Request: fold
Amino acid sequence: MADPYSTLGIARTATEPEIKSAYRKLAKELHPDRNKDNPKAAERFSEVTRAYDLLSDKTKRGQFDRGEIDAEGNPANPFAGMGGSGFGGGFGGGGQRGFRPEDFQGVGSGDMDLGDLFEGLFGGGAARRGAGGGFGSRRPPPPPRKGSDIAYRLTVPFIDAAARRDQRITLADGKTVDLKLPAGVESGTQMRLKGKGQDGPGGSGDGLVTVDVASHPFFRREGDHIRLDLPITLDEALRGAKVKCPTVDGPVMLTIKPGTPGGTVMRLKSKGWSTKTGSRGDQLVALEIQLPDDRAELERRLEGWTDPGNPREKLGL
Reply:
């Protein structure tokens, strides 16, 4: 393994908080759950974890800095004190004394596993060397997995979605949560509820809420605007009037000028849909002139009168 300081990207004078901060940042980036298709990230995660395990232990860090152990935590010279080089002087031959376990005391960290060391030397630790790169080294166990996410669908009334009114949803465990709708909400918008999924050994999953915006009997959405067809009487169109007009925020008074033709579109600023920037579109009100159900009196008054104008002239007719 590379130098643990280089692995964590810190200076050799780094403080304990600096070591912990560097490790947390790298572990978050390289976590196997976030890099399922990247085996190199998993290997790097293991290296970072081993580096942190060594440097977060004051005793091992001091031994490493003094050159007593290597980056894997193994003795820098495992045969020191055995009376010779290689295997010649440590196992009785040539008048030398035989092997004694106390020859290894003081070489490493004090908790070294001699079985692991000699398995590594004579073949028993080959698999571990391939996996971890040192005598007796092991990959850290994978972190426990979080519980599964739970999917929910939330039908939101048209008016509530337009004005972003808070919504209440009942979760699988029977508890209720009040949700704030995001700006620009529409059918298909997903909202994530942290920790509201199934329980697991690594923590709870999340709740995933998909929004369905219900239709409305007379409002309809056009982009960020809301359109409404507003009926008015012939008298209101001819003489002008103040009439009530519904909006998603409640009714407002609308002024109809005398002689307003049918089909006129009036604009109510900021009475439309919530946009993704947090602002509101407009409400577009199309006036529809309606004749009275009983037209006898109207016909009597108009008897002998005809309109000389041509309302279809602009159409070339």
